[in-house]
Input
Amino acid sequence: MLISPAHAQSADPTGGLMSLLPLVLIFVVFYFILIRPQQKKAKEHRQMLAALKKGDRVVTGGGVIATVVRVAPDSDEVVVEVAKNPQVRVTVVKNTISSVLREDGEPAANEAKPQTRAKDEAEPAPANDGGRDR
Output
């Protein structure tokens, strides 16, 4: 009445590998959706911090817009000027700088061209009903 071990074992040798396939697929999806873009963004941030120089306008992690006064090459600190009159200089850690601004105040990483309307595309005329209420 007992089942022998030979009958209890599976005859399919790939059963174990097939059960790991969904786990491998989930890891691959996570890699391409989460891990890889995060690594790319971190690399761009490191390059931005390495290219930081005197005179750059930066935005700190707290949202303060400042001008770089001094960058110490051997340190992870940057001296920034928050206000010109009176001069207010603050030492911040490089990693807290979130972006570098261009001259017009836009982020330097965002180099997209502004969208303009085509010349032949006409704006719709405003509805003018003579001031009558309906």
Observations:
- Confidence is low (pLDDT under 50) at residues 110-119.
- The first strand starts at residue 57 and ends at 60.
- The helical segments are 5-8, 15-50.
- The CA atoms of residues 11 and 42 lie 49 Å apart.
